[in-house]
Structure formats: structure tokens, C-alpha cells
Amino acid sequence: MGSLGAMLKHPDDVYPLIKLKMAARQAEKQIPSQPHWGFCYSMLLKVSRSFSLVIQQLPTELRDAVCIFYLVLRALDTVEDDTSIASEIKVPILIAFHRHIYDSEWHFPCGTKEYKVLMDQFHHVSTAFLELRKNYQEAIEDVTKKMGAGMAKFICKEVETVDDYDEYCHYVAGLVGLGLSKLFHASGKEDLASDHLSNSMGLFLQKTNIIRDYLEDINEIPKSRMFWPRQIWSKYVNKLEDLKYEDNSVKAVQCLNDMVTNALSHVEDCLTYMSSLRNPSIFRFCAIPQIMAIGTLAMCYNNVEVFRGVVKMRRGLTAKVIDRTKTMADVYGAFFDFSCMLKSKVDNNDPSATKTVKRLEAILKTCRESGTLNKRGSYILRSEPNHSLALIVLFIILAVIAYHFGRLPNSHEIRIQDIAISCRKAAEDRSMFLGFLKYSRKLGQQSAMAIAAAAIIVPLGVLFFISGLFTNLVQAICFVLIRPLSKNTYRRINRVVAELLWLELVWLVDWWAGIKITLFTEPEALKLMGKEHALVISNHKSDIDWLVGWVLAQRSGCLGSSLAVMKKSSKLLPVIGWSMWFSEYLYLERSWARDENTLKSGLQRLHDYPLPFWLALFVEGTRFTQAKLLAAQEYAASAGLPIPRNVLIPRTKGFVTAVSHMRSFVPAIYEMTVAIPRSSPQPTMLRMFMGQSSVVHVHLKRHLMTDLPEDDEAVAQWCKDVFVAKDNLLDKHNAEDTFGPELEQDLGRPVKSLVVVVSWSCLLILGAIKCVQSSELLSSWKGISISAALLLVVTILMQILIRFSQAEHSTPARVAPANPNNRNRVADIRQAKDK
User: Fold this and answer.
1) 373 DSSP 8-state letter
2) Where is this region: Disordered (predicted)?
3) Which among 164, 167, 226, 227 has a CA at the least distance from the CA of 199?
4) DSSP 509
């Protein structure tokens, strides 16, 4: 539960931990096949997993030498640590250990667990040692000889003074620093570092371990082993073991802080040593343990838990250190941050506080003077946003979202009944397993489609809604501040602002889905499009007819001033509905008693519109579906009207009112007929978001407003006649799959919408980066929860938009009850439909 709790508190640890786990597995896979080398690297993993990961930074030849160097010294340390061995036996072994490494048959039974295995099979280490280059062997032998002698010296000697403490640490760790420097030099990749700096590298690590391991060493069985100098601990307690008792907690912490302050004296030398390294792999090998040491000291300082258990950096932070230590800037940054953390814990009443602060100030000054602090990414004092964790969380969210998109109409939903159907067929074929496999494959395809839909639609939704909200904000500001002063100025500005949003949807049609819209019209009509006010009437064939109209308006240069008569609920659509409201779209409630005055006043407001506009009016009142066509046919049969085959019966009241109020300032009516070729799938918003192409044919005929009759009833009849002609035109299109090649016009595919979307995307990405850098949006569970909530909101809004556009969710056409005199015609239509 501890690891889980740490991950819950620090969610940005998850990804580095995963990488560390994968690196450990990779290290296990890279164990050599030769028995002696295989034993050495396997043993390295067992006796020090962290070192086995750090050593992977090194080139192969140097890595082999360092591996053997580590195991030789670990074996030597095992002999020293085994308190069950009598001193008269232990000392000669320690002194002669440098000779045993040349003996491929030598071994000595001591230690416990993995260390016992190492000592029992030490001949494998010796065999591998003998395969190293001579200069590597000499460096390892020299350090082993000096270390063995030093350990033997302190078998019979207590650590009394601070000088004794430094001498002991030199023998057991400082010599390791000297040896590594010699190995680095022997590899030809580094200059030979000074003994003083190399010694400090080892002393800093060793003193950190001695401080951290107090409780483990004091409780060693059968005899405790302690290396805290009497000169320090005797200032606080009479016996070293007294520090572990709760009654002495205050004194224990003061002694601990004194020990930490002593260890800090080596930091500046360590920084100097690391700054001189040239080889990146050697640098990482040296830097990672040093950062972990300063981090451990920061955790231990002023922490009584050192005397209750083991205090160390959490695994996630360790994983971050390993993952993010790449340059000297990272080292200075880590030392700076951990030193700041340590300084914040200093109690001015502590006996060594003044000395501690002085040493910390020196370290901080060195880090500042490096001039690299602004180049490092801080992940210690303040977690750096972790985009990779966000991807993991977002993937889970997308999986949930995918389920919902998989249930949208037109997404080929697989129902539970499919299982029964597959199993029944399988039973008939005596192949239940085959039937189950068939269903499983189908279900897998559906799941893949749903996840793909979510992965595509959600990012597009984020782009659209964020840019849309910004557009709405600008429109609202202009509406409040500019419109009261000058309606014409507001309209001109709003036209540009709205177009920046609506071009995103044009981009979806042109560039994302690649929907090909072919216009069939006379050249004279094409020249006037976008240069005059026009009332546009059209059949409502597909879910994206309104978008088709926007594409034509964009090609004609009047996208920002294109208007429409919409149902009232449309203005509640987030972003797009609000944008339409600011652009003066007209909204009706589908009740003529309430809508008549609304429509008249809205049309009257357009009288002084300063730019060429199109006002779209779908006089059928709803989108075309087969169910609605049947209802329209039944109504036509009952009313004695021509039976429609491809269109619905127009509602003429709105059209008559529009003509009546727009005659004086609108010169033309654009009669559009939308058709989908037989070879092309029906275009939908969902298909479009998925990038699935389609083909749309649009026939446009320009009628002069002056050619329409003056009488309202005659205008209504004119509209009905137009739709009868439109029905016939669609019959012709169904037969020929075209409106006539002689009328076909090339609309092209302008790059304007592409430029706008790329610009919006760049602004959004830049803003997101700034937001993430200045907040914990993706580096804490709170931030991730907010991000997830925002994604879910976008998902819901996208579902609303998609469902709103679908014909299955449009308002059904209202039809009059059947006339008893025409029941036979109605019955014939129903029978034909059933067939």
C-alpha cells in the first residue's frame, strides 16, 4: 500500500517507474550467455539492483570492468561485514584479497543470502576478471589491496575522531572513487581525475549510507557495527546506541544533523569532479548516485525516523533521477533543489545550524554561479508536468469515451442479439466455436472503430470548442461594446470573427474528410454568387446540408454573412449555436402563432445589412428520412397533392413571409437541390469527423425575386411547384447520377480554411504548453481530474452536435389527418412501402 499511496500522492512518478521497471527487465535480458559473465551480471542484479541499472549507462568494455570491480569490492565488503568471522581469520583474508582475485578456484564461505552465493562461487568473478585488459586488472588490484589493508586496520580500531571517520570512509569508498577514475582513464574516455576529487566522490556516498543505515548497523547480529565518530555523537549521548531510544529523540536528531553537515563538506568537490567529465555515459553513471545521495541527506536531515527505520527517497523520485539526469545542468538543478529543501528544514536552535547553513549557502552559490539553473527542469521542489502519465490517463478516458461513440447511430453498433444469432448459426453448423470466433472478430472490429472514433473526435472537439469559446468571447465583447454604437461596424467585425470559427468546419469538409462537393449551375449565376443578397431554399437531403451551404458560401466569399432560419433549440448548441446567435440567425419555435412576428421582425432587421448575405430557409421543415417521406406521401395522398418521391412537402408560410418582407432588398432566390450519387455513402457528421469521404452534388438555379407573383397564395403555389420540379430533377439524377455535365462548375479547394485551422492549432498547442508549464494540470491527480472532466465535457458536447445533426433525431414532419375521400390512395402507398 505504501507504493500505491506514493503514486496517488505523486502521479507523475508512474511513468518514470514504468520506464525503470522496463529498464530492469531489459538489463535482465542482456545478461551474457557465457557462464562466468552470466553469473557476474546476474549477481550484480541481486546484490544491487540500483547499481545494476546505473551501470547500464557505460560502454560494454568499461561496463564489464566496472561490474567486476564492484563484485570484487562487494565480496571484500562481505568478508568485512560478517561479524561471525573471528578477527584473526578475517584480517589475513582482507589483506590478501587482492591476490585471491587472480585465483579462478578460490572461494570463501561467509555472508548470507545472495552474498553467500557470491562468495561460494567467487571463481566465476575471478575468471571474468582474468579476461579484462591488463590496465583494468592493475587498477582493480591496486584498489582492492589498499581497501583490504584499510578494512583490516579498522577491524581492531574504533572510529573515534572525525579524522578516523574520514580515513575509514576513504578505505571503504574513497578508494572506490579513485579506482573508478583509473578505470575511466584506462578506457581512454576520460582524463585521470585528481585523487582528492575522486576521494570526495566516494566519501560523500559512503557517509550518506552510514547516516541512513544507523538502525540497521546498530542492530547487527551477533555484534553491532557502527562507524559514527565518537567525536560527534559523544556531544549528545553517552552511548551510540542511546540515539535509537525515544527518550533521546531531540539529542538524536541534533547528532544526526551534525553528521549530515559533515557529509555536506564534500559536495563542492563532487560537483567539480562531475563538471570535468566529457563522456555522457560516464557522466550519468557518476551523477545519478550523487544526486540520490544529496536527496537522501535532504530526507534524513532533522528526521527522527532515521532512528526508527530506514529513510530514503521514494522510488518514484529515484526513477525520476535516473530518467532525467542527462547534463550537468540537471545535476546543478537537483543539488540546488535538494539543498533548498534541506535548508528549509534547518532549525536555528540546532547546535550545528550555523555550520549547516554556511555549507548549504556555499553549495547554492556554486549551483547559481554555474549559470545552468535556468536550463534544468525542476522535478524535486515542484513537479514538472508529466505528459506521458497524461497519455496513460487520457487513453483510459478515450476507452470510456469510445464506448459512447460506439453507440452512436451510423456507427455500426453491435447489439447483444448478435451473440444469439452467431451462436444459433453455429449450432446449426455444429460449430459453436466457429460462431463465437466470428462474433469475437466482429466485436473486435467494432471496438477498434469506437476507439479510433474517440481518438479522432475528441482532439478535434477540443480544438473546435476552445477556439469557439474564444470566438464567442470576442463576439460577446463586440456585441456589448460596438453594436450599441454602430450596428454596421459590429456586423462587419462579426463577419470576420465568425468566419474564423466556421472555416474550421469547412476545413473538415474540404481537407479532413475530403468530401467532394460538385456544383451544377449556369455560369451567370456563379458570377453573381456572393455579390448580392439572396434567399436560399433547398431540399434537406443529408445531415450536413447546412455545411454544404457553408462551403458554397465560402467559395463565394460570403461565409461570414451567411444566415439561416433555424429551430429555436439550435441557439443553445454550445459554441456554434452561440456564434450563430451573435451572427443574427433567425430562430423559430415551430408554432406559426408564435413564430410569425419573430420571423417578420428578424427579416426586417436584415434590410440594412451592409454586406451581401445569404439567408437559408429549409422549407421542408425537417430532414429527409424514409419514415418522413412515407408520412409526406400519405398526407399528399389524403390532400389530393402530387405524391413526392424524393422530397418532402414544403411548408410555405415561412417562405411566403420571407418573400413578402425581402422583395425590396433581396434581388434573387437561389434554389438548391442536394443529391448524393448512388456510388457514394450518405455523408454524416460522424463519418466526416472520422475522415471518411463522400460526394455531394448540388444543383443551383437562380430566380429573380421580381419574377415571383405578388399574391401570397400564388407565391405559396410557386414554392410547391418548385418542389415538384425538384422531385423530377432528383428522379433524373437518380437515373443518370448527375445533374448534367454541361452545368458542372469547378469549385476548387482553397487553402484558407487549412491556414486558419493550422493557426488555431498552433495557438492552442502554445497555450496548452504554457498552461501546463505554469500549473499542475497534468502532474497531480487534481489536475488530471480537471483535464479528464474537460475531456468528458468536450465528449458530451461533440455527441450533442453529432446527434443534433442526425436525421434520426430531427423533428418529425407534421401531417394532417387523412381525408376519408382519399383513403384508397393512402392504403396503396402503405402497401407499396410494406413491399
Assistant:
1) G
2) 812-835
3) 167
4) I
DSSP three-state, residue 154: helix
Pairing mode, strands 614-617 and 534-538: parallel
Catalytic site includes residue 225: yes
- Cell, residue 763: 495557438
Q: Are strands 586-588 and 562-567 parallel, antiparallel or unpaired?
A: parallel
Cell numbers found for residue 317:
523520485
Residue type, 286: C
The three three-digit cell numbers of residue 130, written as one number: 582474468
Residue with cell 560516464: 282
The pLDDT of residue 126: 94
Q: Residues near 721 by Cβ (< 8 Å), separated by ≥ 6?
A: none
Among 53, 47, 154, 46, CA closest to 95: 154
* Site of grid cell 406521401: 633
Q: What's the grid cell of residue 180?
A: 573508478
β-sheet bridge partners, residue 576 = none
Look up residue 754 and give its three cell numbers: 487549412
* 809 lies in some domain: no
pLDDT score of 19: 76
Question: Any alpha helices (H) in 130-194, and if so which ranges?
Answer: 134-155, 162-169, 175-186
Cell of 368: 547559481
Mean pLDDT score, 171-197:
93
Q: Any idea which residue has 525515544 for its cell?
A: 246
Cα dihedral value 739, 741, 742, 745, nearest 10: 90
Mean of the per-residue pLDDT values for the chain? 84
Q: Are 465 and 794 in contact (CB under 8 A)?
A: yes
Range from 557-561, 603-607, 624-628, 704-708 carrying the lowest mean pLDDT:
624-628
Task: Count Cβ atoms within 10 A of the Cβ of residue 371 and give its class: 0-12 exposed, 13-18 middle, 19 or more buried.
Answer: exposed
Residue 735: in which H helix or E strand, if any?
helix 712-736
Give pTM, 2 decimals: 0.54
Nearest Cα neighbor of 101 from 132, 61, 80 is 132
Task: Give the Cα separation of 78 and 719 in Å (integer).
Answer: 100
pLDDT in tens, 628-638: 888 888 888 88
**Whether residue 165 lies in the annotated active site:** no
> What pLDDT was estimated at residue 412?
41
HEC profile of 20-64:
HHHHHHHHHHCCCCCHHHHHHHHHHHHHCHHHHHHHHHCCHHHHH
Higher-pLDDT residue of 476 and 774 is: 476
The whole domain housing 654 covers: 394-407+418-753
Instruction: For 374-423, write each residue's pLDDT tens digit.
Output: 766 566 655 444 444 445 555 555 554 554 444 444 444 334 444 444 44
Q: Which of 63, 74, 212, 495 is catalytic?
A: 212
**Residue 492 designated active-site:** no
What are the backbone dihedrals phi and psi of residue 166, each rounded to the nearest 5 degrees, phi first? -65, -40
8 Å CB contact between 147 and 171: yes
Cβ 614 vs Cβ 562: under 8 Å: yes
Active-site residue identified among 236, 285, 335, 336: 285
Residue 560 lies in a domain: yes
Among 574, 581, 622, which Cα is nearest to 801's? 574
Average pLDDT over residues 293-303: 94
The angle that helices 122-129 and 60-81 make with each other, rounded to 10 degrees, is 140
Q: How many domains does the chain have?
A: 1
Catalytic residue among 41, 97, 136, 168: 168
Measure the CA–CA gap between 323 and 313, rounded to whole angstroms: 15
Domain-located, residue 786: no
Angle at Cα 284 formed by Cα 278 and Cα 286, nearest 5°?
90
Q: Is 74 one of the catalytic residues?
A: no
pLDDT of 411: 42
Please state at what angle helix 249-264 crosses helix 280-300, rounded to 10 degrees. Answer: 160
Angstrom distance (rounded) from CA 685 to CA 625: 16
One of 49, 99, 133, 225 is an active-site residue; which one?
A: 225
What are the φ and ψ backbone dihedral angles of 826, each rounded to 5 degrees? -65, -45
Distance CA 297, CA 338 (A): 9
Q: Does residue 388 form part of some domain?
A: no
